[in-house]
Amino acid sequence: MMRYLKFSLLTVALLFLLLIFLILDFSPQVPYSAHRQVQNADEVHDLIKQLRASLRGRYTRQQIDISIGQADSLLGFVQRALPEVSSQLSLSDTSIELDISYQLPSLFLGSYINLTIQILEGDALAVEHVKVGSIGIPGDWALGLAESLVNTYTKSVVATSAIQQIEKIDVNPNQVSVYLHPLDTLLRELKNIRTSSGGDDNQLLRIKTAHYLRFLDDLRASDVGKQDTSLSYYLQALMAEAKSMTSSGLGDQENSATLENEAAIFALAIFAGNRRFAAVIGDMSFAIDKIPTSPYSPTLASRKDLSLHFIFSAAIKLMSEQGISVAVGEFKELMDRGEGGSGYSFVDLSADMAGANFAALAVDPKTARQIQNIVSLESAEMLFFPSIDNLEEGMGKTEFKTKYTDVESDEYKKVVNEINRRLDTLPIGRRAFN
Length: 434
Prior knowledge:
The protein is an alpha+beta fold. It is 52% helix and 14% strand.
């Protein structure tokens, strides 16, 4: 019996090693090319307009046309946000092929997982095949597994609804056209999603966020609510309140500080950014009757747009990773280079990076309390926002390409490195904590 058990365990171990060998590769099938892919980011404006129109027309059939340039730009954005992921899309007369390479952590000796997905044109969503490393998987089996996993994780049938939403897919070498049934059913299902992020921790975050929203609403003193109120006023008051709440709490003050700071930043994003950020936190009706918002956006460097860049990037950082937050800002600037846009702005990018930097430090247990101590001292932008002197803005696509080529050029990196240097030397900069 023991001999049989040992043999069984050895067989399982060998099969597992064989599976790893077949899945892993030592080189990516998709080389790094994000800097070239995002060159046509300005084309994504048209796609966003289509998506907005489809949401407005949620009760009617929709057609979404995605050009190869738009798809390529979005894949480039993903790679800028997640450098370990690279991907490319190929279109033929009858099919879509998506190739993805994912670099595993250094623990796996620089190995990659290479994934290929082929989707056929036709009625409904038809996955022809999926290949993971050297292992081929039938498309319908892979789609069914993905559907089951998403439904289980979200405790909903959102994946099933999304698949059923697709009425038809047309493909040619330049464009994919996706025909959708009315979106209302899917949108209703999305609102009902309950993921593993729920629970006591999320409930406490909602309670704390509601507290800071009430606190911001009470700040409507004579010098607040005006069009020229600096963001520093709000941040000083919030960090002072967060410091007080941290000190009055019981238990681990480092973890308490991160929770207080996170809730304060989310409240600021809802109050002075966009009330739709409240959807990220969840239902707060049990803790606050009506979600308050500021009648005017605060300013940074006397500009409302920079304040919004800072606030949005800080909130996105809390919802993701810092690299994603900065990549969102960078991609937005690349989109703005096109006709009708405001042009590429290193000033805007600086505000994006400052917001992500502030949020990262505010929720790091090692620096959360120091952020409270420093920012609560006085209402001063120089505590958390770098100088924007000599940073270019308003560049169109041609001017940007002439001066900087792309986002991987030495000239571009030099400016980004300078912004990072300015961030590091702030009173809340990383150098202050080393």
